[in-house]
Amino acid sequence: MSYNPTAPDTTADGTTGEPPTLPTDRRTGCPFDPPGELTALSDRPLRRMRYADGHIGWLATGHAAARAVLSDPRFSSRYELLHLPVPMPGMEGMTAVPPAPTGDFLGLDAPEHTRYRRLLTGKFTVRRMRQLSERVEQFTHECLDAMEQAGPTVDLVEAFARPVPALMICELLGVPYADRDRFQEHVATLFDQAADAEARGAAFAAVGRFMGELVAAKRAEPTDDLLSDLTTSDLTEEELIGVGGVLLAAGLDTTANMLGLGTFALLSNPDQLDALRADPGLAGQTVEELLRYLSVADPIPRAALEDVEIEGRLVRAGETVTVSVQAANRDPLKFPDPDRFDIHRKATGHVSFGHGPHQCLGQQLARVEMTVAFPALFARFPTLRLAVPPQEVPLRDRANIYGVISLPVTWDKE
Known about the structure:
This protein is an alpha+beta fold. It has a single domain (36-410), classed as CATH 1.10.630.10. Helix content is 43%, strand content 8%. The protein contains 15 helices and 10 strands. The protein has helices at 36-39, 63-71, 112-121, 126-131, 133-150, 156-161, 163-173, 180-190, 197-220, 226-230, 237-268, 270-278, 283-294, 325-328, 363-380, and strands at residues 46-50, 56-60, 75-76, 153-155, 300-304, 308-310, 313-315, 320-323, 385-386, 408-410. The strands form 3 sheets. Strands 1-2-8-5-3 form a 5-stranded mixed sheet. The mean pLDDT is 88.
């Protein structure tokens, strides 16, 4: 179907009507596919959408439209300018989104965003992240050792998917060994979907206090880590605590869910898992395809600062555009046969790490972690399999980061 930007928006069944809203539900039995309502819009890469507060903005589902919005400085990331695409827990009834707290550079535009970005970019280069490969391998094998002792039936999220990136974040920020268990305990509660609001609030406050203590310790006695490096910059105490919190959230929950959901996807596609086992050199391609296929971090909203034409449609100043990462990564114009999981595919160009000036700083670290972790997991446990029927694996359907709440797995002991 050809795209006519002047045609009126239509619903998934081809009729004109009420603009769609988010979230939409995934089809039962299809935990790896985006909701059908999103992929059904592939013939219309930018269309109207109704937001949680009633705002009529836009929804970008095409790959080219997504990249155009994310790379254009005329679209803002400032939270206070955005309309929320989905209702946020704890923000019910709020008519405006508050500005980014101090140190949360994700909710800033240039030049404020550029100031933080310049300080951090050099800490996340490909070369520097590859230098951490040995530490990733060490933590991965320590987690696998503990998992083997606890098995043969374990929750992979608790035993492997969450600890590996948590330990790497501790390493990157310079969390002392003696404090790592306390740090991980607070962080686990913070991202635990089963925890109630009070417990998560207490964990959030505890992580903030922990970051404050850590920043003070690094100022007093710097060590060889990212946070110590940043104490020599012009960032204030409050900014350092905020930046540490952003790096923690961005580097932990996303990678943990990619490891959990990615393992689920590989176990559910034995032909692809066999191909990876037969050729571990495919690990890098497998990670890229999993990033594209699963798209766990979704969606990404932006606010137009002025009138902008995208894909032949005029987005007015003040309107919010929500980029559906899931739909953009399944755009058949960019990725032929997009719903097929194929680790031989060249999946470069996906937008799972965003695009443009706010593209994920820690993407190279995430790649290193996954490229090490997946082959090591399946090499250690050649008979690894789900311990429950696939339909009984609990999913994070309404979380900011999609994934599995738990992943019961088992294996044959020799």
